[in-house]
Amino acid sequence: MTTTNLDPSSIPLPTRRRPRIGETGLRALTAATALLLVAIMALLVYETARQAWPSIQEFGLGFITSDQWNVVTAQFGALNFIIGTLLTSVVALVIAVPMAIAIGLFLSELAPRVLRTPVGLMVELLAAIPSVVLGLWGILVMGPFLAEHVEPWLSDHLGFIPLFSGYPSSQGVLPACVVLSIMVVPIVASISRELFLSVPSELKQGAMALGATRWEMVRSVMLPYVSGGLVASTMLGFGRAVGEAIAVTQVIGGANAISRSLFPPGDTMASRIAAQYAGTATSLQRSSLAYLAVLLLIISLITNIAAQLISGRLQRRLGGEA
Amino acid sequence: MSAQDDRNPLTVVSPRSRRRKLQGRLMELLASFAALVAIVVLLIVIFSVAKRGLPAVNANLFTQVAAPFGVEGGGIKNAIIGTLIMTAMATAMAVPIGVLLAIFDTEFASPQVSVAIRMTLNVLAGVPTIVIGIFIFGLVVVSNGQSAFAASIALAIIILPVIARATEEVLLLVPSTLREGSMALGATRARTVVSVILPSAFGGIVTATIVGVARAAGETAPILFTSSIFANAVVTDPSQPMASMPFAIFTNSESPSHHDQEVAWAAALLLMAFVLLGSITGRLLSLRTRRQIEQMR
């Protein structure tokens, strides 16, 4: 109790021992949790790969380019699910990212002060809705609504674009895109708000002093300043969209098919795992689903680490400027 | 990085300036509209769940287990109890580990180690929850069978980064003058953590716990393979698989039976109310903690 490790020479020797035990004990205990974290992460990768190993040995990288998913002939391939995953995630990002950046701008620049906290809270609550509840709403309310009102309009007016051609369907890729965009908006919005708030006021005031309107200041000063961070937040949103299993399984309809249209049912990697893993017919099917999980894991690791590297580099660069 | 504006600012009332102002107004309107859309979507979801769920909420829901297929009535008593037990177990595992991890990261670790830990936490937070489900299936379920305990481990891994990062954030807010003051009085680092830092960050740890509970209660994917084949009765033994609210919503949402869908809506309303209230409480508490700590400075 009476010692410090700041200046060892000034401390009487006899009292040094006891406090050090507590010090070492707490340090060791907390360090153990850090090791546990690393162990969990390593075990997670190892265990998922181990389950996928039979399928990896059987199909190799051809798994990625094959569109077969047939239990009877024991042929499994991920192509349709990879395309389904990319299609739903990219469409979701196209809807969500511009909206989310606009919301971030609203929360940091435009909104009256009294509105900022409540509106920000409500946008964050959108992320708190359990995905299974969003999926329930998607399958019973939003899907039928899209099939009745939105998809016929899209196919009448934009039917010349393959994405919007064909017959409306209440379960399909489009409802999955909408559900995913609802999940992505709060993530990107809250990060972009933080980014916009980090723009130095000298830069903003400088632009205004040069006669720029507020929008011109946003476009020419703020957006370029935070562009790297916006890319990183978009990648995090992409990771979220790629990995969502439950809500997508509920609304997408589950079909091993690629369609050029957004209306018919499809499947993503995550939704195929959620739909089939609990009731597999053969061990090779189970292993192939684990192979899909390995691919998901790789995508999430890459997007996440890349996003962190981008924002880390940005912070250093900005820190260096300051 | 200055404004790309080569126009003469003195010609204030030119048509071009009017156009620029108009353009600015338009873009600001669009941005405000985007925020409005997000709020409207939130309200639509809450309203549609409430509209369909409220009429289906009755005493049976809390006092009965699911009715056999085709029979009217029945409730989700076992699912409510299952979710409470599994969430509690997951929180009991994740909070101590998450808090200790945050302490190590902010108080003991060298800068390089600290960066690595934060990065690992972020990576773990980004792993799809369905993959965590497969991980625990292979690690626990293959050898020991499904159980509420297995599901709790999966949930604990999912909320561990949430709790650790939230705690870390508060620990970093504790002013360094408090640390230095404590050290200057001759306290060791450990004593400083226990007597100075943890008490001032206590509110933040409570917040982190609430946010973790709200997250764990709503997760479905990790339960899908770890606690999905259960007796249709109230189970309190953690070595047995249990029913849960998210799983009840998931299976009933895909049922063609109108009654099952009603149960799904009622369960969704309860779960959503619980999770949203938890999130709001957590958020407001964290604002309060932040203010309190800032006053210490």
Question: Could you describe the 3D structure shown?
Answer:
The complex is a heterodimer of chains A (322) and B (297). Chain A has 322 residues and is mainly alpha-helical. Chain A has a single domain, classed as MetI-like fold (Orthogonal Bundle). Helix content of chain A is 75%, strand content 1%. Chain A contains eleven helices and two strands. Chain A has helices spanning 17-59, 62-65, 79-110, 113-128, 131-158, 173-197, 201-209, 214-243, 246-252, 269-276, 283-321, and strands at residues 69-70, 75-76. A two-stranded antiparallel ribbon of chain A has the order 1-2. In chain A, strand 1 (69-70) and strand 2 (75-76) form a beta hairpin. In chain A, helix 3 (79-110) packs antiparallel against helix 8 (214-243), helix 7 (201-209) packs across helix 8 (214-243) and helix 10 packs antiparallel against helix 11 (283-321). The longest helix of chain A is centred in the N-terminal third of the chain and has 43 residues, at 17-59. Chain A is globular. Chain B is mainly α and 297 residues long. Chain B has one domain (79-296): MetI-like fold. In chain B, helix 1 packs across helix 11 (258-296), helix 6 packs across helix 8 and helix 8 (189-218) packs antiparallel against helix 11. Chains A and B meet through helix 1, helix 3, helix 4, helix 5 and helix 6 of A and helix 1, helix 3, helix 4, helix 5 and helix 6 of B.
Layout: helices, strands, pairs:
The complex is a heterodimer of chains A (322) and B (297).
Chain A: H1 17-59, H2 62-65, E1 69-70, E2 75-76, H3 79-110, H4 113-128, H5 131-158, H6 173-197, H7 201-209, H8 214-243, H9 246-252, H10 269-276, H11 283-321
Antiparallel strand pairs in A: 1-2
Helix pairs in contact in A: 1-11, 3-6, 3-8, 4-6, 5-6, 5-9, 6-8, 6-9, 7-8, 8-11, 9-10, 10-11
Chain B: H1 15-53, H2 59-63, H3 77-108, H4 111-126, H5 129-144, H6 148-173, H7 176-184, H8 189-218, H9 221-224, H10 245-253, H11 258-296
